[in-house]
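Q: Can I see a sequence and its folded structure?
A: Here is a first one.
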Amino acid sequence: MEKTNSTISATPGTKADVRKTSDSQKAMVIIGVLFFVFGFVTWLNGTLIPFLKLACQLETDIQAFFVTFAFYMAYFFLAIPSSYILKRTGYKNGMALGLLIMAVGSLIFVPAANSRSFALFLTGLFIQGTGLALLQTASNPYISIVGPIESAAKRISIMGLCNKIAGALSPLILGAIVLKGAGQLEANINAATNPVEKEALLNQLASRVITPYIVIAVLLVVLAFVIKKSTLPEIEAEEDDASISASKTKTSVFQFRHLLLGVLCLFLYVGVEVMAGDAIGIYGRTIGITLDKTKYFTTFTLIAMLLGYVAGIFTIPKIISQQTALKISAISGIIFSLCVFATTGYTAITFIALLGLANALMWPAIFPLAIAGLGKFTKIGSALLIMGIAGGALIPLLYASLKEKPAIGNSLAFLICMLPCYVYILYYSIAGYKTGK
């Protein structure tokens, strides 16, 4: 086998240990780097929400949450086109293209900062999300079927470590740059009575984001070149006996009910993950905690997720199955959400951060359960699941809208957005994943 054109064939549901091959080990390393990139770019949003609310002088939290809306809605619109792009380019070239698209989105932050245009910032975020949609559509099924499907959750947990380590670091790094002395700066801006002085302070604040995003763009271009020149093998999802049988009786991906239920499950999961990671700062601000402190809250959630991924690596599938892990995670999410509602202050913030622990093993479990048995429909099935990431766009917006209503308020709005999601995820872990099989 020539390494430059190597192909890995993975048969979901078999005991073949493809991971022991040299090619699959290289693939794990390369995909691990990509998951680090996913995490770093994605979890910058937690810092961007308060930053852009201040720099662009947004009036409401609903406006601020358009940061996550623009970013995650790109997945909804680009996931299926991404699957067709991958059919033409293959996994490796598709990943390189996704990185270049992300670099373009990052560079748009330069004119956006210079003009303090919220619309331009949202455009850059949407383009970043577009590149990530292509990368996610390629990398998630890749890591799921590069080895035995029953241990896919374990491999995704390893990737999740890369993702969440980056996610824990990114708000610390960006927050230290763009929100340094944020409390005093916010007070100075609010106290400025001279429009020229206020404009100068806002322009100075907005310019802080330029250098970090230029650096991000350069690194993305370099990584795209490295991926393009790498020996990353292509994979082919072979069909096991169940998949072959399904292929004979089913002519459309929409005939796999466990997949469609999985798309909804992933939609709700990403919604609660973004709430725990990105909305935690807004929750803190709403209950009176200063910006200097809330800018670090996303990192607390990501550290909790890291602990969850470590647990997944050591327990799946040796001790518990991926569906059992999903069940435990959903029950934990229900308990922690109720605790957030029942408490106040830093205690409530602690329980929101602990939702990161509850959420950690959900993606690693949902994705392989949903694509199991799809056979030739794996790529398009993966694209539909990636569309479900749009939950990160809509559920935080719903929270921002509900919490402004006097009859509901902050804590009840949070519970309304979280509890039904975890209840459905629990259903999927018990029965939904095997519906129609």
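Q: Show me another, different protein.
A: A second, unrelated one:
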Amino acid sequence: MQFLEMPAEERLNCFFELMSCGGEHHLWTYDTDGNLLSTDARDMALHKMFAASGLLEYLVDYCKEHHDLIVLSIAQGLLWCAAFETDSDEHVTKIYVYGPVATQDLSYETIGTITNNSDVTESWRPKFRRILRRIPVVMTSVLFQHAIMFNYCITGKKITVPDIVFYSSKKADTTPEAPSRNRIQTYMAEQELLRMVREGNLFYKKALERASSVSTGVGSGDRNAMRHAMISQIVFISLCTRAAIEGGLSPEVAYSKGDAYINDVLQCTSVTDTVHIGHSMYADFIETVHNRKNKQLYSPPVQSCCDYIDTHLESQIDLETLARRVGYSEYYLSRKFKTETGKSLNEYIRTARIDRAKILLATTEMSIQSISDRLCFGNRSFFADTFRKTVGMPPAEYRKKHLKL
């Protein structure tokens, strides 16, 4: 019998039989209301811990609209994988949870914190601590492979690490050591940020806030705050550049944007400035990938012109340069460009500059005059008038509504 012809329960039995060679790996099956249907664990303490962490409640809410494999964690470094059985209409019918596992040995302080935060009685606490000490330790890379195989056993779908969704419990972390050593949460937050770039997902602000709460940047060991901020932002820009390429952005556009933002970081004189550039860069890459995924497919010459415009918004752009770039006459390029995009070249350039201005207004404290100058509008009055006609409100009002630093 082929593996996928076996019932999901038999496939899972095979999976956990193999996992048992490396410690006590547990399977939990829940209905879509969060009621525990079955488990191979010998007691309910780990279930109570999972419920008390808020992760079970999150899973129940998550599966109402999603059924992608998800890895969940708590601040003390424990992780669970959840995969979903669905019916023919893609509605979730069962939730399968594998875990918990740890990515490193749990310290005495961490075990104490988990015990204090879990719904176990005083008399049960000594036994619960012994249970926690038996939780298997799995390297992060190995865990992700386990998660992918776990998902395959249930859904029959082959996925890769970038397809995994990550979620960290928002419950307060009272473990003294956790901020300096919980690398897994930093990695998960980073992967969520990069997934947003690859998807061109405009609902990225919560992910950015979560990442900021678990990471202070690259662990460079440099005590100079300015150098540390610059290194962190350059690394972040480099990661986002590659994620944007994976999301469909051309390498020419992605690397051009990335290089420009790195150059801006190198000219910063304060930590705050580097943070503002990081926010602008992130929003810019997501907007650009989103627009690329959602606009119609242009011919290679017209797409080449669009790419050039997107990477030269802070320079003068003329029809002659674009025509020479694609080997067309200026008259023919003008007609072809408007036929495919629905806009004249000047209209397209103006709209692209307004889109970039919206990002700068929402993510930096640059003055409106500086934004006007940077995007070649000539003067503030023309910029403000163009912005109002395009967006429906003046630049100052837009900033007041959307500024997020």
